[in-house]
């Protein structure tokens, strides 16, 4: 009986904490978040600001994921469908793999090589992820044509607000 109560407590309290939507839904990035460095597939450093600059003028969906994340892998087909259904929208995939080797293997294993991929070499806890209240993956954000945050928090590519935001911005 104690074991059952313990499992219940973990499932209720653990999941509610992990997927808790932030109280403040931010609409812009801080200066510290924008200078956060990631690595591209070749191992070259790039900042969040540089990534946003590459996509300025376009609607951008940011997908936080990792190959070790079961929920991310379950969501991958729906994320690909979202991308396919929105050919005029740019998609960027930010990996939370634990190593560069893991990043490279996941890109190959999950056929991600033809996508815009970056890896947080600094790990999960960094200025960007802390600023955007990253507490769960997968996580999705929509950024407008001027690099402002249009949809701050979604944990599924099937969240209808993602498509609604894309549609509103694409008018």
Helix content range = 40-55%
Question: Which strand order spans the largest sheet, edge to edge or round the barrel?
Answer: 5-4-3-6-7
Low-confidence stretches: 4-17
Task: Say how many strands there are.
Answer: 7
CATH homolog superfamily: Glutaredoxin
Protein name: Thiol-disulfide isomerase or thioredoxin
InterPro entries: Thioredoxin-like_fold, Thioredoxin-like_sf, Thioredoxin_domain, Thioredoxin_ResA/DsbE_sf
Organism: Chryseobacterium oleae
Keywords: Isomerase, Signal
Can you describe what's shown?
This protein has 171 residues and is of the alpha/beta class. The chain has a single domain (25-169), classed as Glutaredoxin, CATH 3.40.30.10. It is built from 7 helices and 7 strands, in the order ααββαβαβαβαββα. The strands form 2 sheets. A 5-stranded mixed sheet has the order 5-4-3-6-7, covered by helices on one side. Strand 4 (90-95), helix 5 and strand 5 (116-119) form a beta-alpha-beta unit. The chain is globular. The chain starts with a helix and ends with a helix. Residues 4-17 have low confidence and may be disordered.
